[in-house]
Description:
With 499 residues, the chain is an all-alpha fold. It is 67% helix and 1% strand. The chain has helices spanning 13-21, 24-46, 61-73, 92-98, 106-135, 150-170, 174-190, 194-210, 215-231, 236-265, 267-280, 305-320, 344-368, 373-390, 402-415, 419-438, 440-443, 448-480, 493-498; strands at residues 290-291, 295-296. The radius of gyration is 26 Å and the shape is globular.
Amino acid sequence: MTLRLQTDAPISAPRRWLSRCTARPVLFVLLMFGFAVWGWVDVRKRGKVDPQDIYAHRTDFTVYTEAGAAFFDGRDPYEVGNPRGWKYLYPPLFAMLVAPLHALPPQTAVMIWFALSALMWWGCYAECVRIARACWPDAPDRGLFGPIPPAIGWLAVLAAVLPAFNCLQRGQVEVAKLFLLMLGFRLVIERRSPWLTFLGGAAFALTIVLKVTPLLPVAMVLGQQLLNGWHERWTRSARTHVGALWLGTGLGMAVFIFVLPSALVGWQANLKHLDTWWNKVAMRMETTTADSFAGNSYSVRNQSLTNATHRLGNWIHYQFGSGPFDDGPMNLGKGGPGLVMDKPVVDHLLLAGRILTGCLLLIVALRTARDDLGGQAAAFGLAYVATLVTVPIARGHYFVAMLPGILFLGAWLVRQGRGRWAIVLAMAPWTLIIPHYIFVDAVGRMGLLGLGTAAWYTAGCVTMLAFRRVAREEAVEDEVDPPRILVLPQPSVGRAAAA
């Protein structure tokens, strides 16, 4: 028995109310009102500086404002710290841009950045919907997420909402980085004009200058567009598009790293600060186990593949072997008493594993370079997730990067007729992220989020390669052996008349 929906059936009052509340303008107003209440009740208090209770100060944003002030008053911006003692670890530009907020009370400065971050979080959602429409223009809008199936969209939001709220609450830059990355990618794939493509490249450059980790997905997009131009035999349109993208990215890097900071503090001072950042931060990312910005990188909150593997091995050695307690005061960094995962061979194997994950992304990038925009968007989302696997530090709020990967990979799989795979891969991240935030002291010791994310990323890459090959083979079979039409013999006129 087949059930059919009656389109003329009356809609109940609760469903009409829910439909109105989930319209984008109404949803925007409701969310902004909720953010305003949350910001005033909770986030604003985190900026309070109480000499009698230093732990009442629970925001990272004052790291940027204090370093920004140091750029202009002669102090070393990479030595000064906020009231909690945390220090600035990024290239100079962002701290310089937020330096004027240092003149305001810390609670006011925190609220201003929180409001900007809330708007950019909405911008991340809006850019994802616009990218989906550009990738699948023939697909009808299915609701809040445009061409993306609602189940995939809600699962992606469920996975990314806790890292995003953690980022907004602490005054971090991950949401801003995601917004700029999505904006740049949309401007590039839409190819509306060379100037917009140039601005897309500039957005990519600004994202990298804010934090170096987006270098991997940006490099993938630049390489794919270059490869597409070669396959298009460098037509005028291809030359203009690729040239605008590379010029926007390269010129943007030069402006955001050298020109703009030098215009603010002077050429020699900027070069000195860049040298300090390069030698104190960038060159020590792989060797240091403790950073004074946000605590120890060996903590349970760092869920990179490297630290998660160390954590799991030491936990197993303690639980099932004769190893020492893996999370005691003596083991807050590598080099604790008898930690089994501190052997050099482990670091060598982990480095090899991270290189292999990068090679897997390279294969996906090469295979999808000439695909439709949907395949390129899915590969771009996986490239952003790859940063969580390859970098040595990936704290909880970094995992907002899962949003585009879940959305675009899930939508691409649905278009390939693999809806079940899409649901499975969309459900897996939130089963990792939510337990991490609720039981961080327990599951963090086992590296659940870091190892699970590496497995999800690998499964996503293999799935794309496997299902793309099947789709290509089916398309080739249709071209070589088109469907045949069976023509039945028609009876002659005489035989028909006799009959």
